[in-house]
Amino acid sequence: MIEILRYPSFRSLFLAQVIALVGTGLATVALALLAYDLAGDQAGAVLGTALAIKMTVYVLLSPVAAALIPRTRRKVVLIALDLVRAGVALCLPFVTEIWQVYLLIALLQSASACFTPLFQSLIPEILPEERDYTRALSLSRLAYDLESLLSPLLAAALLTVINFHGLFAGTSLGFVLSALLVLGTRFPAVVDARTGGSPYARAIRGMRIYLQTPRLRGLLALNLVAAAGGAMVFVNTVVIVRTVLGGGDREVAWALAAFGGGSMFVALLLPKLLDRVPDRRVMLTAAIAMVISLSATAVLWLGSGDRIGWPVLIPAWLLLGMAYAGLVTPGGRLLRRSAVSDDLPFLFAAQFSLSHVCWLLAYPLAGWVGAKMGLGTALVALALLSMLGCATAVLTWPKQDPSSVPHRHEDLPPDHPHLAEHAKADNGEHEHPYMIDEIHERWPR
Fold first, then answer.
1. DSSP string, 153-201
2. At what angle do helices 98-126 and 43-68 cross, to 10 degrees?
3. Could you list the mean pLDDT of each consecutive 10-residue stretch along the chain, which spans 445 residues?
4. Which candidate, 400, 335, 22, places its Cα nearest to that of 177?
5. Considering only Cβ atoms within 10 Å of each terminal Cβ, which end of the chain, N or C, has fewer?
6. Distance CA 249, CA 91 (A)
7. Terminal CA-to-CA distance of the chain, rounded, Å?
8. What's the rounded Cα separation, in Å, for the pair 106 and 353?
9. How far apart are CA 244 and CA 306, in angstroms?
């Protein structure tokens, strides 16, 4: 997997991603501690609201932003977005009211909602070969896991010499370094091929492709499973460690690192595994593991009278991290199989937006239910949410999911160029890699 870094453009973008995500990870730890500082044992509700704001911004902005930004201007826009995020991060240490947290999170995540789909859409253009792209996805997944593994470890070390407000400075520095690396990256030469239609129409194109493709509807359901487990960890770890276990800032960082460690372990195994095992089997296995892990933790929590200890928390968070990586890492492969190159930016934006609808459900459920009804109840609610997602994925994503699908076009004239190229049978039936586009508007039955 590491050999994929021999491509200079991907190497620079990957380093930019790593550095920005380390900074984001520091901000995640600092934000949790800031919420506890401002709200005490109600920190879960504050974090749930802040992260719900983040998800709302992602859902609303990311598809339109990707449609508005020309492919030939992505470099300038990515640099500008990094600098905006750096400036907002510098403001976070000075907040004194909860509403200020919400406002700055909305500004910070508005920039991220534009940045991430643009970044993701570059990878298949830089690495057009399936094998290389698969390894790049796993390496990129590892970079995301730095936010939940190495960043908390670094935060734990930094918190021995500075208070948590200083972590926001590290976030800002990460975004500045990311901008410099993007500036030095050679982007693939492209011509902006989008013609006609409003930005809204171009954004809807990605949504239409996504929701008309069975494997991607299954992916959306699996995103709900991943969100259920991730929300419990990201929202309630600080409350569990500080209130239930009596730990401090560094212990919060170590608990988050357990989740990231499990995720990184699985992400390292996935490239070779996905060469031999279908994506569907890997992802559904991870979904079942997530359901079992959440359910078992809920039973242990309620059975202990809301007084679990470290021997339960660390293994539970480790298993949730392992299941999480198995759910989210292969997703990019499914997207790449499901659209032509010109539509990939819209499809990545649709995935970014629709997957965050799942997080928009899970974050308030974890935060508000945990604050009002207890963390054990929140675990039960999230376990039920993960069961719903897992069952929906099994029903939605067909067992047989070939790239090429036999089909006919009843609405095309016999002399249409598409039929002239592909149709061999007298009834017009033909087979080729099937993707939703202007000619193929619906998936064949």
1. HHHHHHTTTS-THHHHHHHHHHHHHHHHHHHT--PPP------SS-HHH
2. 40
3. 80 85 78 82 82 82 70 85 91 87 86 77 77 73 63 71 81 91 81 51 80 94 96 91 86 85 87 90 97 96 84 94 91 85 74 86 92 92 97 93 74 72 67 73 74
4. 22
5. C
6. 21
7. 38
8. 15
9. 8
Cα 346 → chain centroid? 16
Please give the sequence-ordered ranges of beta strands (E in DSSP) within 240-319, or none if there are none: none
Q: Which of 364, 370, 252 is nearest to 313 (CA)?
A: 252
Half-sphere exposure in the Cβ direction for 388 (13 Å, CA): 12
Structure tokens, 27: 């901000």
> DSSP readout, 79-119?
HHHHHHHHHHHHHGGG--SHHHHHHHHHHHHHHHHHHHHHH
Cα 362 → chain centroid: 14
Torsion angle (degrees, nearest 10) of CA 234, 238, 244, 245: 110
Q: Identify the H or E element spanning 42.
A: none
Q: Diameter of the chain by CA atoms?
A: 77
Q: Report the C-alpha gap between 113 and 57 in whole angstroms.
A: 7
CB proximity list for 409: less than 8 A, separation 6 or greater: 416, 418, 419, 428, 439
- Residues 6 or more apart from 225 whose CB is under 8 A from it? 287, 290, 291, 327, 386, 389, 390, 393
- Residue 82 phi/psi, 5-degree rounding, is -60, -40
Q: Under 8 Å CB-to-CB from 35, ≥6 apart: which residues?
A: 43, 46, 47, 50, 101, 238
Q: Which domains does the chain have, with CATH numbers?
A: 8-186+197-396 (1.20.1250.20)
Nearest to 325 by CA among 73, 147, 128, 129: 147
User: 102 and 53 in contact (C-beta within 8 Å)?
Assistant: yes
C-alpha gyration radius of the chain:
22
pTM of the model: 0.80
Q: How many residues does the chain have?
A: 445
